[in-house]
Backbone:
């Protein structure tokens, strides 16, 4: 099967498995796992932050960040269809007790959008205390949040007393696509999280980075959520390997996504917005009469291509280290065949 469902389906490479087997371990709750400590130090350095915390998932990283930055009854500004709003089971409301406010369109937004949507000033409102950005933006098609907007939002948020956080699950994809370092992209916000288990190819884990006092509070929030780990250095070793070996190769994923988009853009019955193919995602709209995305996905699966349907007409193809250029060239004609079966 050619699996285009997500970059979360990647498997540890032999080199990564070897690194995991050789990992030094200890009890991380006591701060004694050397592999986790190295991963946290390396991550903080890469993001240009004072400290970092290893957590089991990206969803937990975002929730921990919200818990550490806000109080119950506050409001949080997010982009349209942000991962924290759409794909994290309502955790920021159910567990953090905050009110999500959606700003902008398509996933990204500007300071003007923040200013227009921020709440506060009287007791009837949930005061805005946090602004969250997502870079790259998953539901927006893997698009990149403009750094100029990130900088302005973060700078002016400080003046308004708002904290800022970037869900940087795929921040290294943004770095490879823009030519900016991850450190530069991560400098403006107070905190940022990134995933090791997507394009970087590790089997599990994310890292939350920020100021020392923030990470101290985040560590308690992680414990509260059941995310404290013991001898998890075998997992951290996979993350260290990923940071050493799998960042630069993300460009291959971007090239393969662009190739797939170019192959499909001429297929009658499908619609591709090439301007939004900025990283490793291709969003496909089924526009053929009488065919929906779920049925089309099933047709593709029967022919050896896995892809997720997102609603009635939309599908998402994601390239990753398990997908080669040859896979794209093999899959492309199948998309056309499946339309007409």
Residues:
């Amino acid at each position: 099967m050619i699996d285009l469902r997500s970059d979360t389906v990647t498997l540890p490479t032999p080199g990564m498995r070897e690194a995991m087997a050789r990992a030094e371990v200890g009890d991380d709750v006591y701060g004694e796992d050397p592999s986790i400590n190295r991963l946290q130090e390396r991550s903080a350095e890469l993001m240009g932050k004072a400290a970092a915390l290893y957590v089991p998932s990206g969803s937990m990283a975002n929730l921990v960040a919200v818990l550490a930055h806000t109080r119950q009854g506050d409001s949080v500004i997010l982009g349209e269809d942000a991962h924290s709003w759409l794909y994290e089971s309502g955790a920021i409301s159910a567990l953090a007790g905050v009110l999500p406010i959606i700003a902008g369109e398509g996933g990204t937004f500007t300071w003007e959008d923040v200013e227009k949507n921020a709440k506060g000033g009287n007791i009837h409102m949930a005061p805005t205390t946090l602004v969250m950005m997502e870079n790259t933006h998953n539901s927006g098609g893997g698009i990149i949040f403009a750094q100029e907007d990130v900088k302005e939002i973060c700078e002016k948020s400080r003046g308004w007393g708002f904290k800022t956080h970037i869900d940087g699950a795929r921040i290294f994809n943004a770095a490879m696509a823009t030519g900016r370092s991850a450190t530069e992209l991560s400098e403006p916000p107070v905190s940022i999280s990134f995933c090791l288990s997507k394009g970087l190819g590790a089997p599990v884990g994310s890292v939350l980075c920020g100021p020392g006092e923030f990470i101290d509070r985040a560590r308690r929030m992680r414990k509260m959520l059941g995310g404290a780990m013991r001898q998890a250095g075998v997992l951290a070793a996979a993350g260290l390997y990923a940071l050493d070996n799998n960042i630069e190769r993300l460009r291959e994923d971007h090239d393969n996504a662009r190739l797939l988009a170019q192959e499909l853009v001429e297929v009658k019955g499908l619609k591709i917005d090439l301007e939004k193919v900025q990283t490793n995602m291709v969003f496909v709209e089924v526009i053929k009469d009488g065919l929906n995305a779920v049925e089309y996905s099933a047709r593709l699966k029967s022919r050896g291509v896995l892809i997720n349907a997102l609603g009635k007409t939309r599908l998402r193809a994601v390239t990753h280290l398990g997908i080669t250029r040859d896979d794209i060239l093999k899959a492309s004609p199948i998309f056309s065949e499946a339309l007409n079966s």
Summary: The radius of gyration is 20 Å.
